[in-house]
Every structure is written in structure tokens, then in C-alpha cells.
Specification:
Strand content: under 5%
Low-confidence stretches: none
Distance between the termini: 83 Å
Structural class: mainly alpha
Number of helices: 3
Oligomer: single chain
Number of strands: 0
């Protein structure tokens, strides 16, 4: 009869035991708990980001105030050619033909 390196016969299935079953269950719980905590933290961060976005009106108030101040001080200039090019580009993007 032929034997394997571990001494079990070739025709017999071998059992692999890689540790204590209760330790495996605890390790599995630890991994699950860690994953749940990470998921909870990410969810909390995502919820706070969504709340911040919903509370915002999408306007950069600091930039608006800087422009208002520049206008008041006569320091704000408008490049008519650049504005015209921007309108043309916008028109071409919305009505390609």
C-alpha cells in the first residue's frame, strides 16, 4: 500500500486541521467588527458630506465678496473678447451642428 508523506493511505481522504474552531470564530468576529466599524465611519463621513452639500447653495461667498470689493474699488476689469469667446464655446457645446 502507498502512503502519503503525512502517513495517511492514498485512497483515504485526509483531514486538514489548521487551528482551534473557537479561535477561528473569534477571529472572524473581530474581522467582521472591524469591517463594520470602518463601514460605520465611512457612512458617517458620507452623511456629513451630503449634509454639507445640501446646506450649501453652491456659491463661493469669499470669491463673491472679493469681486464686489474689486468692483467698488474700481479694480475689476472685464475682457470683452474673453467673455464673447466663452459665450461662443458655450453655444457650440449646447447646440453642436
Amino acid at each position: 500500500m502507498v502512503e502519503r508523506i503525512n502517513g495517511s493511505p492514498v485512497g483515504q481522504p485526509r483531514r486538514i486541521d489548521s487551528g482551534n474552531a473557537s479561535q477561528k470564530a473569534e477571529d472572524s468576529k473581530d474581522v467582521t467588527t472591524s469591517a463594520n466599524l470602518a463601514s460605520s465611519a465611512e457612512t458617517s463621513l458620507l452623511e456629513r458630506a451630503r449634509a454639507g452639500i445640501e446646506a450649501s447653495d453652491g456659491v463661493d461667498r469669499q470669491k463673491v465678496e472679493a469681486i464686489k470689493t474689486a468692483i467698488r474699488n474700481g479694480e475689476f476689469s472685464i475682457d470683452a473678447d474673453q467673455v464673447a469667446r466663452a459665450f461662443i464655446d458655450l453655444e457650440l457645446q449646447t447646440n453642436p451642428a
